[in-house]
Amino acid sequence: MRKALFATIIGTAIVFFLATLAVPSEIEIGKAVPDFSLKGIDGKTYQLSQFKGKVVVLEWTNPNCPFVQRVYGGIIPGIQKKFADKVVWLTINSTNPGHADFESAEDLKKTYENWHAAFAAMLLDPDGKVGKMFDAKTTPHIFIVDKEGKLAYAGGLDDDPRGRKQDRINYVDGALMSLLDGKGIVAATTQPYGCSIKY
Asked: Can you give the pTM of this predicted structure?
C-alpha cells in the first residue's frame, strides 16, 4: 500500500515538474549570466564572477528530496569527480529557513560528505534570491555557465526521472564534454525533474 502511494506521489511530481521547463526569461541560453554572491557552508563567500574563464556548473539541491538522494547514490558524485579538475561545480541550496527541509550548514556538510559529493562548494541561498533569478524549479535542476560567463545549458540531469533506465542519456555529462571540446551543445535545454524547491 505504501509503495503504491509513494509511486503515485512520485509519478504526479514527475508529470508536474516535467511540464515546467525552466528556461528563464531574464537568464537565457547564449546570454551573459548576472553576477551573484552567496556564502558557502564553509563560511566563505563565493562570487560567480570570480570563476570567469572557467566552466561553472550550478546545481540546485535539497538532501531531503528523494530524487536528490537517488542521484547522489552515484550519478552526481561520479560526474563531479570526472570533471573536478576541469569545471567549477557549485551546489546551491535555496531552502527557506522556515521550511521543514531546511538544514544547517553543519548538517549539510555531514550529509554530502557521507554521499561522497565532490563539488567545489555548497552555497546557501536562504532567501531564494539566486534560485528565483535563475527560475530554478526542482532539485536537482542544473545550469551550466561557459568560460565567457554565458548560460550554455539549463535543465535536467538526464532523461531518467524514475531512475530505471539502463541506457540513460546524461545531459549534463554530454554538455560538459561538448563545452570542453569546444563544440556546441546539442540539447542546450532539457526538462528538469525532481522535488519543488522549498522557497
From this structure: 0.87
